[in-house]
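User: I'm putting together a small comparison set for a docking exercise, and I want a reference complex before I start. The sequence is below, and the ligand is flavin-adenine dinucleotide. Could you produce the 3D structure with the ligand included, as structure tokens?
Assistant: Of course. I'll restate your input first, then give the structure tokens for the complex.
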Amino acid sequence: MKIGIAGAGLLGRLLAFEAARAGHEVDVFDPAPGVDAHVAAGWTAAGMLSPVAELECAGSEVFDLGLRSLALWPRIAAALDTPVGLRQDGSLLLAHRGDEGSAHRVVDLLKAKAPDGYAPAALTPAVLRELEPAVQGPSQAWLLPCEGSIHTVQAMAALTDSAAARGVRFHWGTPVAQVDAGELLLPKGPQRFDWVFDVRGTGARPQMPVRGVRGEIFWLHAPGLQLRRPLRLLHPRHRVYLVPREGDIVIVGASEIESEDRSPVSLRSTVELLAAAHSIVPELAEARIVHSESNLRPALPDNLPRVETQAGMTRINGLFRHGWLIAPALVEDALEALDSRLRGNDEKERSSPRRRGFSASVLLDAATP
Ligand SMILES: Cc1cc2nc3c(=O)[nH]c(=O)nc-3n(C[C@H](O)[C@H](O)[C@H](O)COP(=O)(O)OP(=O)(O)OC[C@H]3O[C@@H](n4cnc5c(N)ncnc54)[C@H](O)[C@@H]3O)c2cc1C
């Protein structure tokens, strides 16, 4: 099939890579000026793959998509041409003395929402020291064994390069003004495809009621610091996490502010996030702040992901805080729906001599209401 994708963020790149692997001809359009322009939220994300911890603010749908995606990521990573820093050694929830009340509220909520076998497991101080010797401030810790992380910058680059190597054409500096069944409205006019995907994130307005939720993160350079897995501090006021990356980098994130302001990080977020990070890993005191970044998470009114499919078009949006966690399962579902429609049309083709020899595009156009 000839597939057109509006948006080259996380979803657009993953869709393009998987669709090309499935044998489709793919064009991707994005207003970003070039392949490395860090416009998409996918670049900024810390890359936590946290189906259980995210249950604090998400439901079973996100959990199920997350678990499926955790199983899909290793296969995707193995198919990509360059590494993506995928780690699946679990993550830790941590709480300071004095914050036990709010921490236990969250842990109890996760225990109530997570299915058997996925609930947080309390750690003794000795086990915590063994797992993460650099963690020294907190008085309580819980392990979430199924969780992990991905290096989002490496993954965004690997997805584009590997998709391009399989024939995907990326059209940079090319906004899509409107997405309709089988058609993208480009600056030079409408262009027809057998199928189109609308994955423009916050750029999908007014066709999707999406808003941007500001998030800020920091990159710390901490040579010699041994951190093996993501850490999340259960704090009464802030959601703070630390994610280790190769090259002695630790990502500290993230604020969550109801604003579409993309300006640089604020002093308040800097003080709050970095003070909290230092309080759980005191060795970070001498780390260097090498980078900070803000971006907008695409969210729908109910903060849940949404997939809308009709003949000739699929829209996916609202990945909010969970894009890296759930994208593989959403993309798998979207491409399977396409496949089954193709198979359905093949069946029709076989049973109808009149249609023998028609291209998939004609049959799908015929299926458009
Ligand atoms: C600070 C921060 C931390 C995060 N941490 C995590 C995390 O730890 N774990 C996790 O799972 N998720 C995390 N996320 C969320 C994750 O990044 C998003 O859910 C994900 O990027 C959404 O993917 P997307 O493809 O829908 O949108 P995006 O990645 O934002 O991509 C949208 C693309 O559409 C393009 N576009 C816009 N307008 C148009 C147009 N008119 N035509 C064509 N293209 C257009 C944009 O240029 C962009 O490239 C975080 C996000 C932020 C901001």
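The chain has two domains: 1-47+61-84+152-210+300-369, 91-145+211-299. The mean pLDDT is 92.
User: Thanks, that's exactly what I needed.
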